[in-house]
Specification:
Largest sheet: 8 strands, parallel, barrel
Distance between the termini: 33 Å
CATH class of the largest domain: Alpha Beta
Number of helices: 11
Helix content: 25-40%
CATH superfamily of the largest domain: Glycosidases
Oligomer: single chain
Strand content: 15-25%
Structural class: alpha/beta
Number of domains: 2
Bound molecules: beta-L-fucopyranose
Order of helices and strands: HHEHHEHEHEHEEEHEEHEHEHEEEEE
CATH architecture of the largest domain: Alpha-Beta Barrel
């Protein structure tokens, strides 16, 4: 939709609101909007996380940095298998711990002596990042990296020179493995081998990402691309604003409070949407004793509904084992989760169905304008306050999906859903924010007509799609 087109619609829709006696609050000034890279990131929705490295072989979660390189020796590393599992789960990308806190580099970095090159794996000729990035390209998956700022191995950690080392290793990742969709900075910042803590030059690191990978989004407690959601359970609050105020906050211990990360800040100064992280097992790295503690497909579905279903992205960790393969228990759970989701969202009862404004005063709009809400195209939107969806005959459903047209900011703060029953409207669901998407679940309900109302928010809240399911 062209801007001119949008503006004309806004004027008409405003007249329409006046006619119907409802003048919505207008907020002066422009709201923050996502960059094109962030918009693509929103579309990526769900991806896998791979924690792999010396900890896989020592059974630790946080390596000390003193582990011998000889320990790293996967016997049957198969990144194509990782990618097949990701695809079966319906993930659109993967992200790997290129370096965790123990400092071991999964690629032969020129700026470290603690890498795959010093290990016996493939006689020191291997490069996990090369294998994974190439497998991702073969499988049409996006690729991202976690490069821990905290390094318990590097001799220069804790000195200004370590910022050069970090910038150089980051540059290797940004320039040698093709397109990256995300760069991940965790908040852990402990002491190095010399007992010192690092003062990081994050500004310099951010500039490198922008320079070499302008399409990549940076994850951290304060973005700038996307934010930690404030817990490691993979969920975000039902009220989830994509905007955040970062002034006065840093990364890690100095980050915003968990509650703020969970909700974002309405009218926050920057577009920094939430990303929910969680592991399919209790730990982030592989531990054989957790083979029977893999989350079930139903648990994964619940996590998905409370992350992606609340407008956030989900990064689900699946740790490869000592062979360098995804354990069958994890791969089974992921395949079943993928099938569960596919089945749940297969048949959209609203697709192509007639949608009308609730208020008669709006009827001078051409009917096709309203059809944007059920046309299956998230690029077409309409700033409507209340609309009625007609399913043509009585249908059973229990799930409504709404998508806000976030390219022009996030505005809706309250939505109500009613069904037409016994000649009156009966409320079946309500929620707060919408954002990139909101999945609303409610008990099995039968009706022919539904009313969807953006009952509060800054005008114009544009909805791009309304979907209806029964699962
Ligand atoms: C945290 C790390 O300390 C954990 O080991 C894990 O990598 C998690 C995803 O991020 O900051």
């Amino acid at each position: 939709m062209s801007t001119k087109n949008v503006n004309l619609l806004f004027v008409l829709a405003l007249q329409c609101s006046v006619l119907s006696g409802q003048l919505p609050p207008l907020r002066p000034g422009k709201l923050p909007q996502p960059t094109p890279a962030q918009l693509r990131w929103h579309d990526t929705e769900f991806y896998l996380f791979f924690h792999f490295g010396p900890n896989t072989f020592t059974n630790l979660e946080w390596g000390h940095g003193t582990e011998a390189e000889e320990l790293f020796n996967p016997t049957a590393l198969d990144c194509d298998q990782w990618c097949r599992v990701a695809q079966q789960a319906g993930a659109r990308g993967v992200l790997i711990t290129a370096k965790h806190h123990d400092g071991f580099c999964l690629w032969p970095s020129q700026f470290s002596r603690h890498t795959v090159r010093e290990s016996p794996w493939k006689n020191g000729q291997g490069d996990v990042l090369r294998e994974l990035s190439e497998a991702c390209r073969r499988h049409g998956l996006k690729f991202g990296v976690y490069l821990s700022p905290w390094d318990r191995n590097h001799p220069q950690y804790g000195t200004p020179e370590y910022n050069d080392v970090y910038a150089q290793t980051l540059t290797e990742l940004l320039t040698q493995y093709g397109d990256l969709f995300e760069v991940w900075w965790d908040g852990a910042n402990g002491e190095g081998p010399n007992g010192k803590k690092q003062v990081y030059d994050f500004h310099r690191f951010e500039k490198l990402v922008v320079q070499y990978q302008p399409n990549a989004v940076i994850f951290s407690d304060i973005g700038p691309g996307c934010r930690w959601a404030g817990n490691e359970q993979g969920t975000v609050n039902e009220t989830n604003w994509c905007t955040l105020d970062t002034a006065g906050f840093g990364r890690g211990a100095t980050g915003p409070p968990a509650d703020t990360l969970q909700r974002g800040n309405r009218y926050g100064a920057q577009w920094i949407p939430a990303e929910c992280d969680v592991s399919i097992r209790p730990g982030w790295f592989y531990h054989a004793e957790e083979d029977n503690k893999v989350k079930s497909p139903e648990q994964l579905m619940n996590i998905y509904l409370q992350s992606v279903g609340r407008g956030a992205n989900l990064i689900l960790n699946v740790p490869p084992d000592r062979r360098g393969r995804i354990h069958p228990n994890d791969s089974l759970a992921l395949t079943q989760f993928g099938a569960l989701r596919q089945k749940a969202f297969q048949h959209n009862l609203a697709r192509g169905r007639r949608i009308r404004p609730e208020h008669r005063g709006c009827l001078f709009f051409p009917a096709r304008v309203f059809q944007r809400l059920t046309d299956g195209d998230t690029q077409t939107a309409f700033p409507i306050g209340a609309c009625v969806l007609d399913l043509r005959r009585e249908r059973q459903f229990n799930t409504l999906v709404l998508r806000e047209y976030i390219a022009e900011g996030q505005r809706a703060s309250a939505v109500e859903v009613d069904i037409w029953e016994n000649e009156t409207w009966k409320k079946v669901a309500q929620t707060t924010t919408v954002g990139a998407r909101k999945v609303l679940r409610f008990p099995d309900t039968s009706a022919r007509k539904l009313r969807i109302r953006v009952s509060d928010g800054d005008w114009p809240a544009q909805i791009s799609e309304i979907e209806l399911y029964k699962f």
